[in-house]
Amino acid sequence: MLAPRGFDRKTFAVVEGWPYVESLLADALSTRKATRVLARRYGGDIPAYVDAPGNVETILATLSDVAMACDQIRDLETGEAVVRFVSAQDVGADRRGRYALSLTFDYLPEETQNTIALDRLEVAA
Fold it and tell me: Among positive and negative, which fits the CA dihedral 62, 124, 97, 107?
């Protein structure tokens, strides 16, 4: 499988590999379900968790959305998965609905693991 390639969602520069997958993750996690006309199943409910209580149920729902968003990122030519959600570390939330998550993903084309912070993905922006 070749490294995925596309446009960065902020700069519109051509990016390839893990930086592009990171951009796709941010897009999938910040898009509400059923808001894309031609892709009704695309996205998740993470934007709905803004200002939600930082309880166990909300954190588990957030992690579930992260896993489902990863499943939506596929190679355009082969349809194979590009990234897989592995685990979350440093999980925490406060009463104001601010989350602290470090997410680990398997980047399948290079068979490597990458860890990023949820706030770095800017999913609530």
Answer: positive
